[in-house]
Design goal:
Elements lengths: L1 E10 L3 E4 H7 L4 H8 L3 E4 L5 H16 L8 E5 L10 H9 L5 E5 L5 H15 L4 E9 L9 H4 L4 E11 L3 E8 L7 E2 L20 E2 L1 H23 L8 E4 L4 H10 L11 H4 L6 H11 L8 E8 L3 E8 L1
Parallel strand pairs: 4-5, 4-6, 11-12
Antiparallel strand pairs: 1-7, 2-3, 6-7, 8-13, 9-10, 12-13
Helix pairs in contact: 3-4, 7-8
This protein binds oxa(dethia)-CoA.
Oxa(dethia)-CoA binds next to α2, α6 and α7.
């Protein structure tokens, strides 16, 4: 028994913020952002929350799958920007949908969060503990950016993507995932302050700091290796995969992976131009866009791959 995706959905906040707008509030330009990253605009939350975006994305995925919320056994949300420390975003989604029979919890694996969620659900499915699940990647990253640090805040966006997963004979074919905590310092958001009476600490602000070049080096070496591992395990040639749906951090990273695998860029759909980097939500938003454009046919093979904070990475090969 394995996991098959039977419906996808996504939801982006209403407000679009262009590179040109950012250049009116900080020392940056459309030229710098677009040429270094491929990003032209991103959606940022105003009234929306991580939970509200997740619930809407989930409703759309359930509608496509023809599944009622009460039928769900599990809800797993990959996020590093849940609206509260507790309850989890997954529990808020459960309440919002009325998915009364689902067990719900979040996974924090940063930009690999959706893929880790998929693999976790797959393990539950294989053990017989789950039959029908919802996996979501959702972020409100704009809340944890330092808006005076142009080297990070221009890169990220907000949004949510969801997939309904059913236990079936065909679907997830092979996977790889890993973590390298030694490199965690290269992408960090240290936002915990100890408020107990025994310790006096300076207030630590909740913002994200990234050593872009270190994360870049990590991505262009670990991601192609992870993809190759999965392809080898499944005995599939790179050209047999219809699409490679990679975490949308930087167009140059995606181009580098395509080159390493000796594949045409056409096999690597892009959403970062209009979404920016949405961490855990990147892959499921892109998957939903590709699905809704009608680009996937039954039996197609696709690779999903996420990488980022932790540092973490995860890749899976899926039959559609
Ligand atoms: O989702 C998690 C995964 N994340 C990633 O994969 C991110 C990986 N890293 C990257 O994508 C790239 O490293 C960045 C896009 C973040 C940065 O590109 P870079 O080519 O590594 O630029 P840099 O950091 O070396 O900065 C080059 C210059 C610097 O100026 P000087 O020192 O050369 O004068 C920066 O101050 O660009 C400057 N700069 C900017 N200029 C205009 C940095 N940010 C900006 C900006 N606008 N927004």
């Amino acid at each position: 028994m394995t996991s098959r995706i039977i419906g996808t959905g996504s939801c982006l906040p209403d407000t679009v913020v262009t590179n040109d707008f950012l250049s009116t509030i900080m020392d940056t330009s459309d030229e710098w952002i677009a040429s270094r990253t491929g990003i032209r605009e991103r959606h940022l939350v105003k009234e929306e929350t991580t939970a509200s975006l997740s619930i809407e994305a989930a409703r759309r995925a359930l509608a496509e799958a023809g599944v009622e919320p009460e039928e769900l056994d599990m809800i797993v949300v990959g996020t590093l920007t849940g609206d509260h420390i507790t309850p989890s975003t997954a529990c808020e989604v459960q309440a919002g949908l009325g998915a009364v029979n689902a067990v719900a919890f979040d996974i924090n694996a940063a930009c690999a969060g959706f893929i880790f969620g998929l693999h976790t659900v797959n393990a539950y499915i294989r053990s017989g503990m789950c039959r029908l699940a919802l996996v979501i990647g959702a972020e409100s990253l704009s809340r944890i950016m330092d808006w005076s640090d142009r080297s990070t805040c221009v890169l990220f966006g907000d949004g949510a993507g969801a997939a309904v997963i059913r236990a079936q004979e065909n679907g997830l074919m092979a996977y790889d995932q890993g973590s390298d905590g030694e490199k965690g310092k290269y992408l960090a958001c240290p936002n915990r302050t100890n408020n107990n009476p025994l310790v006096q600490t300076d207030k630590i602000l909740a913002y994200t700091k990234m050593d872009g070049q270190e994360v870049y080096k990590f991505a262009v070496s670990y991601v192609p290796a992870s993809i190759q591992k999965v392809l080898e395990e499944a005995g599939i040639a790179p050209s047999d995969v219809k699409y490679y749906l990679l975490h949308q951090a930087n167009l140059r990273i995606i181009q580098s992976v395509a080159k390493r695998l000796k594949l045409s860029q056409d096999k690597f759909p892009i959403s970062l131009d209009h979404c920016g980097n949405v961490s855990a939500a990147s892959v499921p938003i892109l998957l939903d866009e590709v699905n809704r454009k009608g680009l996937l046919e039954k039996g197609d093979k696709i690779i999903l791959s996420g990488f980022g904070g932790g540092l973490t990475w995860g890749t899976c090969l899926m039959e559609w």
